[in-house]
């Protein structure tokens, strides 16, 4: 089959032209980056796991009525998605203090927040994705007040779903990031969940032990990232067989 036309390459994914207008193929790479790409590595199997996990979360969200870009998984590393116009914001939802919020406010990581807190960063790698208030978002025209109200409602639904799914397998959803896209049906614009939901963009802690099962394992050199993501996939029952360490044949006695 002729190779599809590459439209965009990001840090962890590549977007190719889709088979029909209005569709794209999203390819999950094994590349990991942190600290605005200052730290990089290739982690075998990460793309396969994130493809599966994002499929699992997006399908579940679709089943409870949250609109998403996900159409179907095509193979180990690729999924068919709806083409959207990405709103240039990282929408971050926090249930417990961690990462940049813990640092900014001098809070201990893991401190429960009084309610889920949503914040927005402007998606610009050169600027390091700065935190922006709603005032900036509206003034610069990245999204309207109505869009923001819809985004907050959508983010809270995603949070409740993800927190519940994770709790059921003994994992605490500390925080996560989502991205939102616009789609048009004739003249009618809708906002839908886009990009990915995976341990690359969530903080996931084991409820019993506090063990980190997300990208902080890579950011903070806490062990094997593949093992952590495999554990999340295993608990959720979405572990594909022979994926992560499938490079060598094993002798079966
Ligand atoms: N996050 C992300 N991409 C980013 C920044 C943050 O997926 O470019 C996720 C991150 O994995 C965490 C949440 O958003 O689950 C909150 O991240 P935070 O603002 O604490 O930043 P960090 O400490 O990761 O720099």
Kindly report the CATH topology of the largest domain.
D-amino Acid Aminotransferase, Chain A, domain 1
Main sheet overview? 7 strands, antiparallel
What is the first-to-last residue Cα distance? 39 Å
Strand content: 25-35%
- Share of helix, binned: 25-40%
CATH domain class of the largest domain: Alpha Beta
CATH-defined architecture of the largest domain:
2-Layer Sandwich
* Beta strands, count: 14
CATH superfamily membership of the largest domain: ATP-grasp fold, B domain
On the 0 to 100 scale, the average pLDDT is 95
| Domain tally | 2
Give the overall silhouette. Answer: globular
Unreliable stretches covering 5 or more consecutive residues? none
Bound molecules: uridine-5'-diphosphate
The helix/strand class is: alpha+beta
Protein architecture, described:
Belongs to the SAICAR synthetase family. InterPro entries: SAICAR_synt/ADE2_N, SAICAR_synt_PurC, SAICAR_synth, SAICAR_synthetase, SAICAR_synthetase_CS. It catalyses: 5-amino-1-(5-phospho-D-ribosyl)imidazole-4-carboxylate + L-aspartate + ATP = (2S)-2-[5-amino-1-(5-phospho-beta-D-ribosyl)imidazole-4-carboxamido]succinate + ADP + phosphate + 2 H(+). Pfam families: SAICAR_synt. The protein is of the alpha+beta class and 253 residues long. It folds into two domains: 107 residues, Phosphorylase Kinase, domain 1 (2-Layer Sandwich); 122 residues, 2-Layer Sandwich (D-amino Acid Aminotransferase, Chain A, domain 1). It is built from six helices and 14 strands. Strands 8, 9, 10, 11, 12, 13 and 14 form a seven-stranded antiparallel β-sheet that branches. Strand 2 and strand 3 form a beta hairpin. The radius of gyration is 18 Å and the shape is globular. The termini are far apart.
